[in-house]
Design goal:
Layout lengths: L1 E8 L4 E8 L5 E6 L10 H9 L2 E6 L15 H12 L5 E6 L1 H8 L4 E5 L9 H10 L11 H8 L11 E8 L2 H11 L4 E9 L7 H22 L2
Parallel strand pairs: 3-4, 3-5, 5-6, 6-7, 7-8
Antiparallel strand pairs: 1-2, 2-4
């Protein structure tokens, strides 16, 4: 496994990343963190994804980590820049946590997994307070609360084609996320609950890793069958 840092260059901005390259490549994956996170938080998940043969790119979103831009409504462009870079290695999977899960599910990736995705258009005062106190200090943004303005401007997730989207969430997740994910279960969406997982640790748990890998293997298997038609 080759692991190295790379700056992905795009139109007027650069996306810091860490790339995992397996010896035998069967496609690619882009992995993105949530609000107040960083690419370094997602390295454990990235390694497990790369082990099944996906060249895996973990990035810093604007306003986070080594990214030089402040958080703003162009945040999806960071993920799309990484997807574009990965296209030369085959079909691209998008995997993200929280805000990153929302971005993965609305991105141009061929298949997406949202881990505790922030699908809601609004969150309660208590959730906003916790995010501000626990995660906000890690983010470079023009003003406090910019996250909520960015969230309002992101497009909603289209679940019409459920075969290309999957969701994993925790039984002890953010209340708004639990409620919305439970409602999606009735619409035949691919939704998996991880028992006892919290919003803050779900992307580090072995049960989550196993669920992600299982979903990816199913997707890759179906994709190969489709390619042979």
């Amino acid at each position: 496994m080759d692991i190295r840092r790379k700056i992905i260059k795009s139109n007027g901005f650069n996306v810091p990343s860490i790339i995992f390259t397996p010896s035998d490549i069967h496609g690619a994956a882009v992995i993105i963190h949530g609000y107040g996170g960083s690419k370094e938080e997602m390295l454990g998940l990235a390694y497990r994804v790369a082990e099944i043969g996906l060249k895996t790119c973990v990035i810093d979103l604007r306003g986070h980590g080594e990214h030089t831009l402040n958080l703003d409504e162009g945040i999806l462009q960071d993920m799309e820049a990484a997807i574009k870079y990965c296209r030369s290695f085959g079909k691209v999977v998008g995997i993200g946590h929280s805000l990153g899960g929302r971005l993965a599910l609305i991105s141009s990736s061929d298949f997406a997994i949202g881990i505790s995705p922030a699908l809601n258009t609004s969150f309660g005062e208590e959730t906003q307070r916790i995010l501000k106190n626990v995660r906000g200090y890690r983010v470079r943004e023009a003003f406090s609360g910019e996250l909520w303005e960015v969230m309002k401007k992101l497009e909603k997730v289209n679940f019409d084609d459920n075969t290309k989207k999957s969701i994993i969430y925790g039984s002890r997740d953010v209340p708004e996320i639990i409620s919305l994910c439970n409602s999606l279960k009735t619409k035949n969406s691919s939704v998996t609950e991880i028992e006892n997982a919290m919003h803050s640790d779900i992307f580090t748990l072995e049960r989550t890793f196993q669920s992600v890998i299982s979903k990816l293997k199913d997707y890759l298997s179906d994709s190969k069958k489709y390619d042979k038609l």
